[in-house]
Design goal:
The chain has helices at 2-37, 39-75, 221-228, and strands spanning 110-111, 114-115, 119-122, 128-130, 135-143, 147-153, 159-169, 177-178, 183-187, 199-206, 217-219. Strands 3, 4, 5, 6, 7, 8, 9, 10 and 11 form a nine-stranded antiparallel β-sheet that branches. A two-stranded antiparallel sheet has the order 1-2. It has three helices and eleven strands.
Length: 229
């Protein structure tokens, strides 16, 4: 009898011990969950925030690159579009009495091994040369080939009108705003023009985004004037 009772008491104590361990395990598990699992969303939010920060930083980085490129372009000396001046609806010929049809074919004529990429307008020496459009005198330039030359920008800064072989300039200067029809120079034979053949060498260039007067793409003056003449 005594042995049986001792056996039951031992089983009860063992069961209580197991129950106590089980409860202790549950309590520890609960405490761990409260400490770490609740913090987990915050950890995910931090990762998400870091990712969003990286994503958000990309446009800023691109904007910084764009600003740097714009600054580099701004550092290039160019003539900006003329403030307050708009292009004339129609272009006028640079010498009075000249017909636009006389420009046909001049652009593709050969000059030795190269294409002319301009038109030659024969006229007596010292005939006034007129601005074909409103705009700005971008550059007065003396060269071995062109002699006394003028680069005039249209008001948008997209087109450059080139006048070469001038006898002399009119009273103009770089950066000056001119109106269509203003006298800007006079027909001559400066540069490599034949000395007994005074004429105006006239060209049109399409400028790139840098607005460099010496880097334009040649356009056929006949087509430009047909579109706006």
């Amino acid at each position: 009898m005594t042995t049986r009772r001792a056996d039951w008491e031992w089983r009860i104590r063992a069961g209580c011990a197991l129950m106590a361990c089980f409860c202790a395990g549950l309590l520890a598990d609960g405490l761990l969950r409260m400490k770490y699992v609740r913090a987990e969303p915050g950890v995910r939010d931090t990762a998400r925030a870091a990712q969003e920060s990286r994503i958000g930083a990309a446009p800023s980085a691109r904007a910084g690159v764009a600003r740097a490129a714009a600054d580099r372009h701004a550092a290039v000396p160019t003539v900006a579009a003329t403030t307050g001046v708009v292009s004339a609806e129609r272009l006028r010929v640079p010498i009075d009495g000249v017909e636009i049809e006389s420009f046909r074919g001049g652009f593709v004529e050969r000059r030795g091994e190269r294409q002319h990429e301009a038109v030659d307008i024969l006229s007596p020496r010292n005939t006034p040369v007129l601005a074909v459009d409103n705009g700005t005198i971008a550059k007065l330039f003396d060269s071995k080939a062109g002699g006394h030359t003028i680069y005039q920008y249209d008001p948008t800064g997209r087109l450059a009108y080139y006048y070469a072989h001038l006898e002399k300039y009119a009273d103009v200067h770089e950066g000056q705003i001119v109106k269509q029809g203003d006298v800007i120079g006079y027909v001559g034979t400066s540069g490599n023009a034949p000395p007994n053949t005074p004429h105006l060498h006239f060209a049109v260039f399409e400028l790139d985004e840098t607005g460099r007067w010496w880097k334009g793409k040649p356009l056929d003056p006949y087509l430009v004037f047909k579109n706006r003449g």
